[in-house]
Amino acid sequence: MLKDRLARLAPAVQRALSVEQGVRARKAAEIALRESLTRYTAVTESANDAIISMRPDGTIDLWNKMAQQMFGYSAEEAIGKQLHQLIASESCRRNADQGLRLFEQTGSGPVVGHTIESTALRRDGSEFPVELSISAMNLGGAWHATGIIRDITERKQVEEERRINAEKQAQALAQTIDAVAAMVEARDPYTAGHQRRVADLSCAIAGEMGFSADQIHGLRLAATIHDLGKIHIPAEILSKPGRLSPIEFELIKAHPQAGYDIIKDVQFPWPIAQMVLQHHERLDGSGYPQGLKDEQILPEAKILAVADVVEAMVSHRPYRPGLGVDAALEEITHKRGVLYDPAVVDCCVSLFEKNKFALDPKGV
Description:
- By secondary structure, the protein is α+β, with helices and mostly antiparallel strands.
- The chain folds into two domains: 47-151, PAS domain (Beta-Lactamase, 2-Layer Sandwich); 162-353, Hypothetical protein af1432, CATH 1.10.3210.10.
- The chain contains 16 helices and five strands.
- The chain has helices at 2-46, 65-71, 75-78, 83-87, 90-93, 96-106, 153-186, 194-208, 213-224, 235-238, 246-253, 255-263, 272-278, 299-314, 325-334, 342-353; strands spanning 50-54, 60-63, 115-121, 127-139, 142-151.
- The chain has a five-stranded antiparallel beta sheet with strand order 2-1-5-4-3.
- It is elongated.
- The protein starts with a helix and ends in an 11-residue tail after the last helix.
């Protein structure tokens, strides 16, 4: 009997130890879970952003203190409500139902896994800009979501102020450029309007070539003052009705460098001084003042060169009448790839052939 009882003792002890280990493991797990929940609650409640958790059907089951402050609803009022019905603006609410169905099925959607900017609604009905980030987790075969929402009202205000200031600066810059252009043309009445027309044609060509709006704006400013250096040339040479002497022509050829020297220290967002300097350069190196070749010339300067030639040939000058658009297009086509960039020439010719651009033959 004793041996039989001893034989059963060892398994009994093992079972008791196993049970005790299980109890200890459960207690340890419960303690760890409580600590984790405590830390999670501390993090969510002290966060500077609204943290919201949603069940698979889109109803709220977590609403931290910042969410209460941001939206004006207490946790008791928010929990159990549909998130998109509670705080989404009317513009955002339109697609919410379709997005919720997609989330219920796949845990994905247009806002899941992305940080987006949107408009949210406070309890008092006022709208304000927010940055929203939603992550998804599959628990027990159902998708749950956690959203972090940040009020970006101050950031948007700063951005708007910067935008307004940038617009004012751009406007002031354009007005200054126009004033300088008018000053240059006042000394050379025979070519009044030349820079403006070159600017218009340059921008049209750049648009055909796919230049960005910002690049085109910089090109327009450069084209509007590309002959700035002529302010150093005696007025009698500019308006001379006959052929220029070699010395006079050398003075004329100095105007790109003179224009560059005037504006080289002005901090433009674009290489305007270089465009002014290079507008008489040619692909084969025969231009002036630096004798640059193809790849050394700015793309904007290549456009400016073609527009300058076309406008000058079409318009009247003291020493000759206007030669007309056909003659101007024949000139740039004949020198295409030699003096002038092929792509620029092709776009320029296309503009006139398709009646997308016109120059007044009188140069008025």
